[in-house]
């Protein structure tokens, strides 16, 4: 379980002249195996929160605990999929996926075998010896996913991972992610701008507001899976979520949803 | 309209582009004609016995088949020059890389190392000769010191630029995947810095090759291509000097085509990282 309590973060410029409060009073609990989407306007601190959960940034105040251990530095137990893949250009696809295993001291041959199996799982078995620049955006993101999944993380942190791909590919990637999530039952925290994507994927959505970034409200998505974006209930939920994002006071709930 | 289109069409433009072999052949032919005319004019107008291509070629064959040149074979001269070059450059690369890495890991060190490197880099290597002789006396040690100074600053500057060019997001990714400081150094910083490092190495080796030939001319050694060229003045053995000049140019060409181009094709090009410039150092 991931627990965030009374977390604040203020960016301070290098000359200490300017301060920018990016997050204020964040309280959030994410259950094991839960799929949580963070959604909200630009600049509302979603990436900042994700970077803090990843251990890249130390918050100004407050704590994050994963299974009762304090998060204070990056670790393979919290795998990050970045918006722009961040694969190592000098390594092949296979070497990229085996990188984390290599760091753990897994023998080379075994690491490559495990990496190859993971590549099969994300449908990239034939691309092991390609270099990242030879792949499409969607393929790179699948490699980026494979290189963290191979480390069997407790939590997956994903920051707008599918932004750079066309809508059809995006849907395919979402489906693939859902399949992997069902198989491995990871906790996933997924940042997106896209309301449709959030409803399609999430068990729960946390809606952010800006200035400073805070969680305005949370909403459980109880639509049965697999979901279909064309159904009336999906569309109603989408309209409702969009309204929630635009207004400060939530309107009456439609009957499909429950509210926290 | 059709003319314009035909002109713009790719096959037309490609067919007018000469290939590498043709370019080399053309410039060689131009050099030969220019040389013959100059030699002829110098001979008839001023009575100067400039070596002709034929004489140079014949002398080249003599030298390469082992005939002595200032008491040593051309191979010995070349060997000594290469040895000094390799040793001086090796020291420059080792010390330059270490200083460059130290500069990127400690901001205080950077504030000392970088400004000094930028300050001393433009100093022509020959300007160091009095200092070298004062410190190390006449001889090989001075020559190697000069080569070191000619090569070390481009290495420092480019290693620093290279390490800084590694995106912090890749360092984050590595840390997230559990990389130790050693792994981050060898698997992330070193390859990430390679494009800049290679262009620094290029500049460094080209600088020190030029510096070496010059240093051998004044440095009080009795071996080496630079020494040999200058001695040709006294023996009036100008064809040998020309042969030596060709060898010097060829070494540069071999390093560029045979080493740097190959390394780049196998690394940076395969990684899709592009060339960071620095092609012009040997020209
Ligand atoms: N490294 C940084 N230094 C200073 N300020 C920052 C830094 N990163 C983000 N900020 C500021 O913090 C605020 C929150 O930024 P953040 O990137 O977390 O928002 P976001 O919700 O992810 O936005 P987007 O949806 O556009 O990605 C913004 O006002 C931004 O300008
Ligand atoms: Mg963001």
Tally the beta strands of chain A: 11
CATH 4th-level superfamily of the domain at 76-271 in chain B: MetI-like
- Give the quaternary arrangement of the chains: heterodimer
Please state the structural category of chain B. mainly alpha
Question: How are helices and strands ordered from N to C of chain A?
Answer: EEEHEEEHHHEHEHEEHE
Query: Helical residue percent of chain B?
Result: over 70%
Which small molecules are bound?
A: adenosine-5'-triphosphate, magnesium ion
The most extensive interface between chains reads: A-B, 30 and 23 residues
Report the radius of gyration of chain B as a whole number of Å: 24 Å
Mean pLDDT of chain A: 87
Helices and strands, with pairings:
The complex is a heterodimer of chains A (260) and B (283).
Chain A: E1 2-12, E2 19-30, E3 35-39, H1 46-54, E4 61-66, E5 69-70, E6 78-81, H2 93-103, H3 108-121, H4 137-149, E7 155-159, H5 167-184, E8 187-192, H6 195-201, E9 204-209, E10 214-220, H7 232-246, E11 258-259
Parallel strand pairs in A: 3-8, 3-9, 6-7, 7-8
Antiparallel strand pairs in A: 1-2, 1-4, 4-5, 9-10, 10-11
Helix pairs in contact in A: 2-3, 2-4, 3-4, 6-7
Chain B: H1 2-8, H2 10-16, H3 20-46, H4 53-64, H5 74-105, H6 107-120, H7 129-136, H8 140-165, H9 168-176, H10 181-218, H11 225-235, H12 238-266, H13 268-271
Helix pairs in contact in B: 4-12, 5-6, 5-8, 5-10, 6-8, 7-8, 8-10, 10-11, 10-12, 11-12
Adenosine-5'-triphosphate binds next to strand 2 and helix 1 of chain A.
